Amino acid sequence: EDLNDKGYPVYLKDHILSHHIHKKDIENALDQAKNGLWKDSPLPGTTLEKLLYTFLDGSNGTLSTILSRAQSEKNEVKLCLTLPFSLTILPFELMHNEKQFLLLSDYPKVHLMHTVTDRNKYAKAQPSQRPLKILFMACCPLSLADGKVLDFEKEEELIFTATEKYLVDIITEDSGSLTGLDYRLCGEGQGGFDIVHITGHGIMDPDKGPLFFMESETGEEAAVTPSELWEKLKKFNPKLLFLSGCQTGKSGDVKGKESFAYRIVKFGIPIVLSWGLSVGDKAAALFAAKLYEELAKGIPFEQAIYWARKAVEQTYNPWPLLRIFTDGGPTDKPITDKRGITHRSKRKLIME
């Protein structure tokens, strides 16, 4: 919760008070997070990584106890963070306990989610009885400078190659526009896609808030707001939206400017994947390919995220930049249940 006389209170599940975080430690962490030095190398952020761990551990060793118990019982650990807006800039994905980064730990495996709302905390997982179905769309406006043009064809090919042996259907919508997205979603109907993957560029505009750059009907740049994207998604509500663009998981400096991903979950999407800062498109593509490969196998969502992070571990960026926002629903089950389904994967390119 927000700051009080004792510092920032940290609560466990069911609103049980665990400990407080000193204000000066929070200020130190915020300064380090804002300078951005940690995003490309673990070395400059060493203090930050350990600070973030102590914030959840406290003087009573809350997190250490949870991790030790999970390791001895051969369980995994799922951390669901609900943060006050002032702390949303902190990259808790970087937590390090002086032995290892928690999200890359083998024993126990640790999963971290940012909980936007608890509207689905009592929901039960309902895997689709079919092959995994993905809608892939890349947004590459004609006005982009050469250095910003994404190699989306390479990303698509990496994803298809990684999943071609498994039960998955991938449809590529080539327009890059809201109109094209709407047309494709309407064509599939309710529950048509398990995953919608949109690649492009995002920013946190100081005045307008989060924006994602899609294409107009003539291929020009179209700055799309979270509410505009939600208007196209809400009737068909995929289980997972991956906004693979820079800063889609970054909040602004002023309260009320939550990240694009945060707002989309608030509107109604169960799970949104995003990037907290700028991310290299090659590494992001490798991450996505590994993620969908694991999901196509029928691996539970949390496990798939873990293996995708591990796949890009050696490049550092982007594994700590990925931020997951949820509505409190289950994330420990597969997205699809393919038992009894035998046909192989297919890909379809849609060009308007």
UniProtKB/TrEMBL annotation:
Domain (CHAT) ranges: 71-313
Pfam families, alphabetized: CHAT
Protein name: CHAT domain-containing protein
